[in-house]
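User: I'm writing a short methods note and want a consistent example. For Secreted protein, I'll paste the sequence; you return only the structure tokens, no commentary, since I'll be parsing the reply automatically.
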Amino acid sequence: MNTVEGAIVLSAMTLVAAGAVSGFVTLAEHSTAQALARDAARAGALGEDARAYVNQRDSEARVQVSQERIGEVPIVRVTVSKDAPLKDVSAEAVVVAEPTE
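Assistant:
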């Protein structure tokens, strides 16, 4: 590749490969956020500290935990946000809280 066209093609291929890798990493971060939110909501429903659960597994993740009621049913809602190469990703999980009695 001694031509300008070859250099342009090589540059374009590099950009496409970098974009694809960034996309895959973003998808992986979203999957991780979903798993963290789900597991933290389950832990919170069992009476454990959901925020500490997330921070123990991923110290860079941002987490919001709320305990609410829908009618007479207590629920735990956990939202986990993470930074990713293409955009910030977040996931939410809602679990019915276990009875404390």
